[in-house]
Amino acid sequence: MEHYNVNLGDRSYPILLGAGISSNISGELRSRFPGAKFALVTNETLVNIYQKELADWSSELPMVRIAIPDGEQYKTIDTWRSVLDSLLGERLDRKTVIVAFGGGVVGDIAGFAAASFLRGVKYVQIPSTLLAMVDSSVGGKTAVDHKMGKNLVGAFHQPSLVLVDTTFLETLPRREFIAGYAELFKYSFIGGSDMVTFVSSNHKAMVGGDNKALVEGIRRSLAIKARVVESDEREETGARAVLNFGHTFAHAIERFYNFSGILHGEAVLWGIACACDLGLRVGTIPQMELKTYGHLLEILPRVNLPWKPDPEKLYEGMFYDKKVEKGKVNFVLPTEAGSVVIRNDITQEAVLETLNTVFGI
Ligand SMILES: NC(=O)c1ccc[n+]([C@@H]2O[C@H](COP(=O)([O-])OP(=O)(O)OC[C@H]3O[C@@H](n4cnc5c(N)ncnc54)[C@H](O)[C@@H]3O)[C@@H](O)[C@H]2O)c1
User: Fold this and answer.
1) How far apart are CA 197 and CA 355, in angstroms?
2) Which site from 1, 85, 257, 271 is most exposed, i.e. has the minimal number of CB atoms within 10 Å?
3) Residue to probe by mutation, ligand 1, list 136, 156, 167, 225, most atoms within 8 Å of CB
4) What angle do CA 274, 130, 244 make, to 5 degrees?
């Protein structure tokens, strides 16, 4: 089992990582939170798939189970309220530890419930999607969506433990796996030249489901994310902005399709292709790195779009991004292998040329 620490002073926490480590989840939780009661928050799909595991955890620990409906459309204030209703209905106290078992949706809602229940209780993340394993389970961003936009109501609240067991990926639908892989792939652009080399040489093994390569890819991704979070826990210094690589385009793509027919990670894959094209176009990528980026783009998984997007509308959509400052879009662009630069001076013309090129319009 790998052990990694996110160092945030009195909010520091360990990440445990390995294949099969959840077989000892009860022992792990009991020893790390002596005397606590647990509230497991998960969704209806996972309750069906992991009946036996959940029954074991409930029989071995003082644990109540709260299952929310499955889907981003349920990442709402109503679902968050229903979780709080259940916690209060069970008369749980401040020593309660919430255990989020699921993908990013479950993790974000359970985390926000933990941030707000009785003014804040501890919580544990047990991510079950690749996206949650490499991204959302670490960093303490918790939120629900609002009709005005995604993740608009939430809190920064760090988990007390993250337990990543890659065997949960065995039941994950392939499409969700590739969408999560987009975030892992993203780290090769921001995590230094070592990560570029690792992803370039282990890409095939990872997308093929090779457990050893995946554990290592997830470990490296989490280490990079932890480092960024440690330097900018609450998104105040700007350091956390690098995690947004590919996301300025991705958010506009998701918005264009009205958040339907395309998964977030799928939009990120297109967003990565756009960021690379724009980097080449405006000259942030040095000549000597062309081969490296050429290879990354060659192996970048290709996913279908519902239909060809309209570049003008995509461009307009970029101005709705939360990261727009004083009317200027911050583009995170590739530079030396494994590094990015943030630029807010890119012309509309360059962005439109990129969109036309990438989407073949
Ligand atoms: N907090 C953060 O820092 C952060 C970062 C990135 C994304 N997010 C959020 O994460 C969410 C997306 O997360 P996601 O991609 O994990 O989606 P998700 O939570 O909706 O899960 C995707 C689907 O896979 C199913 N599933 C989960 N684990 C499974 C398993 N092991 N086997 C079979 N099916 C399984 C789920 O039931 C769901 O249908 C978005 O709401 C996004 O805003 C948060």
Assistant:
1) 28
2) 85
3) 136
4) 35
User: 21's torsion region: left (phi>0), alpha (psi -120 to 50) or beta?
Assistant: alpha
75 Cβ below 6 A of ligand 1: yes
Backbone angles phi and psi of 237, in degrees to 5: -90, -15
Distance CA 361, CA 355 (A): 8
pLDDT digits (tens, 9 = 90+) for 114-156: 999 999 999 999 999 999 999 999 999 999 999 888 899 999 9
Tokens of 348: 């509309």
Q: Compute the half-sphere exposure of residue 178: CA atoms within 13 Å on the CB side of its CA.
A: 16
* CB-based contact 208:121 (threshold 8 Å): no
Catalytic residues, by residue number, are 119, 141, 183, 225, 235, 240, 244, 247, 251, 264
User: Treating both helix axes as pointing N-terminal to C-terminal, what angle do 264-282 and 348-358 enclose, rounded to 10 degrees?
Assistant: 120
> Can you tell me whether residue 326 is helix, strand or coil?
coil
pLDDT tens, position by position, 238-296: 899 999 999 999 999 999 999 999 999 999 999 999 999 999 999 999 999 999 999 99
Ligand 1 near 186 CB (within 6 A): no
